[in-house]
Amino acid sequence: MLEQDLTDEEFQPYFEKAEELSKFFREIGPKYDAENTFAYPSIKAFKESGLGSLPVPKAFGGPGGNLLQASKVISELSKGDSAITLAYNMHYIMVGIAGNLMSEEQNKYWLGRVADGEIIFGPFSEQRAGFSGLADMKAIPQPNGGWKLYGKKTWGTLCEAADIITTNATITDAEGNLPEDFQERVNAESFFIGDFNLDENGQGDGIRIEKTWDALGMHATGTQTIHFDGYYVPEDGFICEWRSGAFGVLEWASLMFASIYLGMQYRVLEESRATLSKKTLGATFGAIVAEDTKVSGVGHIIDGIGDMASRVEISRRVLYQTCQELLDGKDDEWPLELRFPYIGLAKTFVAENVMHMTRHAMSMVGGSSFRKGAIFERLYRDSAASMFQPLNSDQSRTYIGEYLLQPEQLND
Ligand SMILES: Cc1cc2nc3c(=O)[nH]c(=O)nc-3n(C[C@H](O)[C@H](O)[C@H](O)COP(=O)(O)OP(=O)(O)OC[C@H]3O[C@@H](n4cnc5c(N)ncnc54)[C@H](O)[C@@H]3O)c2cc1C
């Protein structure tokens, strides 16, 4: 495991930087949501903030921020703008996942570059089946060592800012045939890291970006398609077998996603309070018949804001406590098979609550929230993305249910 021993006191200036950057993301966010493109000015600002190096251990040139500290920074940034932050979230996810799986030598080189300000991303999901589908992308062994990668990844968040790529591909025979045996195919699926040197048109050597991102929300993530057409990875770009490696450190994905949606919850509550505490309906006829109706005095609005604030507080506790339990090694007490879904619960809990909150905010604010440009319609669209990133609710419950229904577990 990476040594991450930044004290709370040492962390404070990093959090203050996050508060500053969050304000900038908040300012520029609406423009890039409307234009449906990556938020380009965020690159310089993110690099200058120095926040990208936060989780890099001191031994590799960073401050050594831990999971909980990274979570706090991400939520703070997401409170400013969730779409822009979801892009940089991929950087934190991949520093955490790759950093915990790379050799000392690889970490010195790659995390050393991250400590110097470079940005890393991770396109893994493919079209057939996102993250859980075994990679159809091929890594064909080369006569002089290393592999050439062929295939495409349809979810390349942050590609327009990244300097380093991590991805997964299945090692084939010399002719490019995937293993026919299922278990062999699982074992052959591998985790790679390499340079992401592209020109201003998104063209590189054996690799290119195709701009396909056009979705309901999270516009500024710039989640484009990445084509691999003979992209060369030398032997020292091999990290480990993908499934057995990544599934042991997926807290860096799941809990970072949870942090995005906790930050979004903060924002939903903030915007709802700001609007509903001031809104006046004037003379009304209907459920309330009165000369002058202030929304902040209406029963279901008072209850609604209380409900929202309760969900935020409980979500924060679930996320922070899950991070803390992992930092304290309490996950050792969980059944091994349940480690992944138990970590995933924090993400699914926060995700379900943020979707509930964005819908409820619109119903309380009323029709004006539905108009384009209103922050509430934006939060509603963006929150829908929380359904998809791993783990989703259905799969978490499947993992847990399957485990509990095994006859031998009934004796425990
Ligand atoms: C804004 C955004 C940005 C993203 N950025 C990235 C990125 O940078 N890198 C990246 O790799 N991915 C990224 N993703 C992709 C995301 O991780 C995928 O949505 C996820 O991998 C699920 O894949 P899918 O949505 O294609 O669904 P599918 O995998 O096609 O799932 C379809 C259905 O099958 C079910 N299902 C799938 N597999 C199983 C299984 N094994 N067991 C039981 N049920 C199953 C699902 O629950 C779902 O109901 C991003 C997604 C979004 C929304």
TrEMBL record:
Residues 30-118 form the Acyl-CoA dehydrogenase/oxidase N-terminal domain. Residues 304-384 form the Acyl-CoA dehydrogenase/oxidase C-terminal domain. One of its GO terms (molecular function) is acyl-CoA dehydrogenase activity. SUPFAM superfamilies: Acyl-CoA dehydrogenase C-terminal domain-like, Acyl-CoA dehydrogenase NM domain-like. Its cofactor is FAD. Gene3D superfamilies: Acyl-CoA dehydrogenase/oxidase, N-terminal domain (1.10.540.10), Butyryl-CoA Dehydrogenase, subunit A, domain 2 (2.40.110.10), Butyryl-CoA Dehydrogenase, subunit A, domain 3 (1.20.140.10). It comes from the Bacteria. Keywords: FAD, Flavoprotein, Plasmid. Belongs to the acyl-CoA dehydrogenase family. This is Acyl-CoA dehydrogenase. The lineage of its organism: Bacteria, Bacillati, Actinomycetota, Actinomycetes, Mycobacteriales.
